[in-house]
Design goal:
single chain; alpha/beta; six-stranded mixed beta sheet; 32% helix; DNA-binding
DNA sequence: AGCACGCCGACT
DNA sequence: GTCGGCGTGCTC
C-alpha cells in the first residue's frame, strides 16, 4: 500500500480524491480514515485518507507529510456511506466526510505555526525570542505572533528562516478541537480504605453512614463522581474519611450524559414484555426479512403500539449482539423515544440530536465509538455516529418532511441515507408511519406490515367525532374571519368545562400577505421578492430570509391607506382567540416563538400542568404535545397546502389530518375535532380524516403515474444563481438548450421542465433560476456535463416549485 | 477555495 | 521597463 487516496477541501471535486504517496516510514501508521497533512500546490492542507492502493492513478504524486490526528476517525463503512452520499447528492467528498467527525472538530484556514522543541545557537536575539513564543504542542495562528525586529528583518522573514533551519513547521489549515473533556472530582478507596473494609473493621469508620459509603465504593470498584455522592452523603462524611486517608479525591474524566426528560415521557409504566400481538408483528418482520436487507414499512397503529414494536425489534437485535439505531424527525420526539428506550434498556441507550450541548454531543460520540452503548436514539445527524456492527435501523414517522429538509447544507434525504447505511451494515431497515409517503409505500410493496389485505383500519375518527366546517358557507355575521361560529361555540364549551384546546394552522405570522385594495400592490421583501407577512403591528417579516421591515401604513406604490391583510398566520390566530376569550391563557407554538428544544419543552410542560388553556401553532403542536388533557382540536384551514403547485402538497395535507387521530387514539378521551376548509370534498381532506390510507394512496399513485412523477421517475433540480438577473437567465437558457439537444438520445431522462424563476426568485439580492430534469436517472445524465461551482444541483428536491 | 499565471494599462 | 489590476484554470 504505497499510495493513499485523499479527500481535500476543494469544492469542484465531486466524489473525487487526490493521490499521494505514503513514505515508507509512515506506511505502518497511515490508515483509512486518518486526517493527514499534505502538500497542495504551495500550501500544506489537511486531507482525509479515503482509500489505500498499491498503484497510483497519476504520474508523480507528492508525499503525505504527517498525521494531523493520531487516531483514524472514520470506519470503512462510514467511508463507503460518504462515497455514496457524495456521488448521489453531488456534494464534495470532504464536505460529506466532515459530518462524520466528532462534534466540536472544526477546520480552520490560515497560516499556523508549531515548533519542534529544539533550538540553535546561531539564532539572533529576536529569532530565539520568536522561537520561544511558539509552542511545541499546539498550532497557533501566525497572525497572533507579536513583536517585530527593530534591526530590519521582519517577523515573517525571521519565521521563514526558522522554518528553513527546521526549527518550526507551518501549515495552512488545521483541525481545531473546540470541545474539551470535562474533568471532575472523583472519590475512590485508598489502599488503606480497601484493607480496612476487607477486614470488616466497621468500628474503624465509627458511624454506619461512613461505612455505607466505603461499602458502596468498594462494591462499585471504580472512582465515583463527588457531585453524585454528595447528593446521598453529607459532605462531612466525605471529608472525614478523606482526612483519615481512606478516601482519595482525583480529577477524572466526567461524561456529560444527557438527562432523560421525564416530563416528555409518553408512557409512565412500560410493560416488561411486549404484548403477544407486538411480538407477532416483530416475528413477521424478521421472518420476511431474509438476507435481502430491503427497506420495510410498518404501517403502524397508535404511537404506543409502535413504540412496543420498536422495543421488541431492538430487543431482538441486541440479542444477536448487534446495535440498533432509532431515527426520529425532531428533537422532541427523540426525547420521548429516548425516555422509553432508556427505561427499558437501562444504561445501554445513547441519545444524539442538535439540542444537546456540544459537550454532551462530544461525550456521546466518544462513548458510542468506544462501544459503550447498544442502542442509539437520535435525529438525522445520528446517521453519522461511529456505531459499529449495526443490526437495525428504525425510521419513525417516515412521512415527516424533516427527514428530507434541513436549513443547513449539504441537503440529503435521511431516509435514503439510512437505507444505504443499513445496506452497508447488512442491517434490517424498518420505516414506520400511519400515513407513509406514497413514494415509500410504493417502494416497499410486499414488505409492508401488516400487509394491506390484513389491515383492519379502525375508522374511529371517521364520522362520529370529526366535523368538517365548510368555510364557504360561513355567513356574513362573522365575528371572526378565521374562526367559524361552530368552532367558536365548541371552544367556549370546551373552556367552560375546564378543558384545553389546540388550534392548528400552517402559517406563521399574522397574515399571508399585506395587500393594497386600491392598486393591488402586495408588500414584498426587498432582497428576495418573497411575499411579506405581518408579524405583529407594523412589523413585516420575510419567511424566507428572515429579515424584518417596518410597515409604513401606506401603499408603497400608490400611497393609498386602504391596506388589508389577506390570509391568516398563527400570530393573527392567537390575537383572535385572545379577543374572543380575553380571560384565558393563549400560547403560540411555532418555529418563531419556540425555536429551541428548551422553549418547546417548557411549553409542553406548561400545557400539561394546565397553565395554558389554548395552544395555537403549526404542526409542531402535534409532535410535542401530550394531548391527554386536550378536549378540542381545531384545524383552521385544512386546505392551506392544497393551493400550492408542488406535487407533494396533497400528500402533506393528507398527512397533517391523518396524524391528528394518531396522536389521540390511545388516549380515547372525549376529544372533538373540528376541521375548517374551503374544499370539504377534497380527497386528501376526506381521506385524511377517515384514516383511509388505501383510497388516498390509490388515487395519488395513479396521478403520479399519469404525470410521470416520483416514485415513477426521479427529479434533479439544477439552479443558477447570480447577482446579475440577465446573466442568470441567459446561462440557464443556454444550459437548457444544451441539455435538450440530448433529450431524445438518452434513456436517463424523459423530460426537462423550465427554466423557470425559482420560488422565491430573488434571495439575499441574488437571482435564481431553476431547471428540472425528470426521468429514470437524471443524475447520470447530468454527470456528462461539467457544471461549474456557479450551479446548484439538488438531487431529489423536497419541493419542485 | 486559494493561488499562480498571464495579459493589459499606469507609473518611477 | 516595472508594478499591480483582476480574469482563468489547476491543484495529487
Amino acid at each position: 500500500m504505497k499510495y493513499a487516496e485523499i479527500a481535500l477541501d476543494v469544492p469542484p471535486s465531486i466524489g473525487a480524491s487526490f493521490t499521494y504517496t505514503i513514505p515508507d516510514v509512515a506506511s505502518r501508521f497511515v490508515r483509512l480514515g486518518h486526517l493527514v497533512f499534505v502538500p497542495f500546490r504551495t500550501r500544506v492542507v489537511i486531507g482525509i485518507v479515503v482509500a489505500l492502493s498499491p498503484c497510483s492513478a497519476v504520474a508523480n504524486p507528492r508525499a503525505i507529510l504527517r498525521l494531523a490526528l493520531k487516531a483514524p476517525l472514520l470506519s470503512p463503512i462510514q467511508l463507503q456511506l460518504a462515497f455514496w452520499m457524495s456521488r448521489y447528492y453531488r456534494i464534495s467528498l470532504f464536505r460529506t466526510l466532515i459530518q462524520f467527525l466528532p462534534p466540536g472538530y472544526v477546520f480552520r484556514k490560515g497560516k499556523y505555526v508549531r515548533s519542534f522543541g529544539i533550538t540553535d545557537p546561531t539564532l539572533t536575539k529576536h529569532q530565539s525570542a520568536l522561537l520561544d513564543s511558539i509552542p511545541k504542542t499546539k498550532w497557533i495562528p501566525v497572525v497572533k505572533l507579536t513583536g517585530s525586529n527593530p534591526e530590519g528583518a521582519s517577523l515573517l522573514s525571521d519565521l521563514s528562516q526558522l522554518k528553513a533551519m527546521g526549527l518550526v513547521d507551518t501549515v495552512d489549515q488545521i483541525v481545531d478541537i473546540t470541545v474539551t473533556p470535562k474533568f471532575d472530582d472523583h472519590l475512590s478507596l485508598t489502599q488503606l480504605g480497601k484493607e480496612a473494609f476487607k477486614k470488616g473493621l466497621i468500628d474503624k469508620f465509627r458511624t454506619p453512614r461512613r461505612f455505607q459509603l466505603v461499602q458502596e465504593l468498594a462494591l462499585v470498584g471504580f472512582p465515583m463522581p463527588k457531585s453524585e455522592l454528595k447528593v446521598r452523603y453529607r459532605s462531612d462524611i466525605l471529608k472525614v474519611l478523606e482526612a483519615k486517608g481512606y478516601l482519595l479525591t482525583q480529577k477524572l474524566r466526567q461524561n456529560r450524559v444527557p438527562a432523560i426528560q421525564n416530563d416528555t415521557c409518553s408512557m409512565q409504566v412500560l410493560p416488561t414484555k411486549a404484548s403477544s400481538a407486538t411480538w407477532e408483528k416483530t416475528e413477521m418482520v424478521f421472518s420476511k426479512h431474509g438476507n435481502k436487507f430491503l427497506p420495510m414499512l410498518i404501517k403502524g397503529g397508535s404511537p404506543g403500539e409502535n413504540r412496543e414494536i420498536y422495543l421488541a425489534l431492538i430487543a431482538n437485535c441486541i440479542a444477536t449482539g448487534k446495535k440498533a439505531l432509532i431515527l426520529l424527525p425532531d428533537t422532541l420526539s427523540v426525547d420521548q423515544v429516548f425516555c422509553d428506550c432508556a427505561t427499558r434498556f437501562i444504561g445501554q441507550v445513547a441519545v444524539f440530536h442538535s439540542g444537546l450541548s456540544q459537550g454532551q454531543q462530544y461525550d456521546q460520540w466518544e462513548e458510542i465509538q468506544k462501544n459503550k452503548y447498544t442502542v442509539v436514539v437520535g435525529s438525522r445527524s445520528a446517521l453519522f455516529l461511529p456505531i459499529k456492527n449495526l443490526g437495525l435501523i428504525v425510521c419513525d414517522a417516515e412521512h415527516d418532511w424533516l427527514y428530507e429538509y434541513d436549513d443547513v447544507l449539504p441537503s440529503y434525504n435521511a431516509k435514503k441515507t439510512a437505507a444505504k447505511l443499513a445496506e452497508l451494515n447488512k442491517a434490517l431497515y424498518v420505516m414506520s408511519s400511519v400515513t407513509p409517503t406514497v413514494e415509500t409505500y410504493y417502494e416497499t410493496q410486499g414488505r409492508i406490515y401488516p400487509p394491506p389485505s390484513m389491515e383492519n383500519e379502525s375508522k374511529l375518527f371517521g364520522s362520529n367525532r370529526a366535523e368538517i366546517i365548510d368555510m364557504r358557507l360561513e355567513g356574513a355575521d362573522r365575528i371572526s374571519t378565521i374562526i367559524s361560529a361552530r368552532l367558536r361555540n365548541a371552544l367556549r364549551e370546551c373552556l367552560q368545562n375546564g378543558g384545553q384546546a389546540a388550534l392548528l394552522l400552517n402559517r406563521r405570522g399574522t397574515a399571508a400577505m399585506v395587500y393594497c385594495r386600491a392598486c393591488g400592490y402586495i408588500f414584498r421583501c426587498v432582497t428576495c421578492d418573497y411575499v411579506l407577512i405581518r408579524q405583529s403591528g407594523f412589523q413585516l417579516y420575510c419567511n424566507n430570509c428572515r429579515s424584518r421591515e417596518t410597515y409604513q401604513d401606506r401603499c408603497l406604490s400608490c400611497s393609498s391607506q386602504n391596506i388589508v391583510d389577506l390570509g391568516t398566520g398563527t400570530e393573527k390566530l392567537k390575537q383572535e382567540v385572545m379577543s374572543l376569550f380575553p380571560e384565558i391563557t393563549v400560547m403560540k407554538w411555532d418555529k418563531d416563538s419556540a425555536p429551541g428544544i428548551k422553549t418547546q419543552r417548557t411549553i409542553a410542560q406548561e400545557f400539561q400542568r394546565q397553565k395554558i388553556d389554548v395552544v395555537v401553532g403549526t404542526q409542531m403542536i402535534l409532535k410535542g404535545l401530550d394531548v391527554s388533557s386536550v378536549s378540542l382540536i381545531g384545524v383552521i384551514s385544512a386546505d392551506i397546502g392544497l393551493q400550492s403547485t408542488d406535487f407533494r402538497s396533497t400528500e402533506k395535507t393528507f398527512q397533517l389530518l391523518g396524524n391528528i387521530p394518531r396522536q389521540l387514539k390511545d388516549i380515547g378521551t372525549n376529544i372533538s375535532l373540528i376541521i375548517q376548509t374551503y374544499q370539504p370534498s377534497h380527497y386528501a381532506i376526506l381521506g385524511g380524516l377517515r384514516k383511509d390510507y388505501e383510497s388516498f394512496y390509490n388515487r395519488e399513485i395513479s396521478d403520479r403515474q399519469k404525470f410521470q412523477l416520483p416514485p415513477f421517475t426521479k427529479i434533479v433540480k439544477v439552479s443558477r444563481v447570480a447577482t446579475d438577473s440577465y446573466l442568470a437567465r441567459e446561462e440557464i437558457m443556454a444550459l437548457s438548450r444544451r441539455l435538450r439537444e440530448n433529450l431524445g438520445r438518452s434513456r436517463d431522462i424523459s423530460s426537462i421542465v423550465g427554466p423557470v424563476p425559482s420560488h422565491p426568485h430573488r434571495f439575499k439580492g441574488r437571482y435564481k433560476w431553476d431547471l428540472l430534469l425528470v426521468g429514470q436517472n437524471p443524475n447520470g445524465f447530468l454527470h456528462k456535463y461539467n457544471l461549474s461551482s456557479n450551479w446548484i444541483v439538488d438531487v431529489d428536491p423536497v419541493s419542485v416549485f
